[in-house]
Amino acid sequence: MSDEQQDQAEEQRSIRRAMRKPARLEPTPAGQRLAEQMLTMLNEYEQERRAEIIAAGGNPDEGRDPFETVRAIADEWAATADDADARTALLDHLADRLDTSEVRALRLAAEAAAAITPRLIYQDADHGVTAAQTAEDLGVTESYVYRIRRTRPSDQ
Q: Which of 70, 73, 75, 89 is nearest to 32 (CA)?
């Protein structure tokens, strides 16, 4: 491997390390209250801002990441994994915020995500991505990634 290729590989590893999530801190009651208050304030701001944009004749979703809400729900779900009270508060918040058609869409999207996961694992393998990195990116175990790789159909 040339010096340039080694430098590029090291730069890619450095970027991956920088993009990894920091270790999660243990939640405290005061911290949880602060997080809940901040979430409430951000939701109020977003509602007011959307109303302003609509009142001005604009589209509040223009230029927005279409998965922003899904990512926010996923991040909040992961953040409350070790705190039963926070998880309950999140579930109450989501039940108030989402209607049945939105939950249906999320459930169907989750089924689609589960169905395409093996294909993404195959693609990563084809592009030399390690099983560990694929597992981290997908939020699954390394053993799951290896099992999917081993059971890859011969036509894929």
A: 89
CB 86 within 8 A of CB 27: yes
- pTM of the complete model: 0.55
How much is the CA Rg of the chain, to the nearest whole Å?
Answer: 20
Output the tens digit of pLDDT for each of the chain's 156 residues.
567 767 666 776 666 665 555 555 566 788 778 888 888 898 899 889 888 888 888 888 777 778 888 999 999 999 998 988 999 999 999 999 999 999 999 999 999 999 999 999 999 999 999 999 999 999 999 999 999 999 988 776
Kindly report the backbone phi and psi dihedral angles of residue 74, in degrees, each rounded to the nearest multiple of 5, phi listed first. Answer: -65, -45
Question: Does residue 140 sit in helix, strand or coil?
Answer: coil
Residues 60, 139: Cα–Cα separation, whole Å: 31
The whole-angstrom separation of Cα 132 and Cα 142 is: 6
Cα separation, 123 vs 30, whole angstroms: 44
The first and second tokens of residue 103, run together, are 């939950």
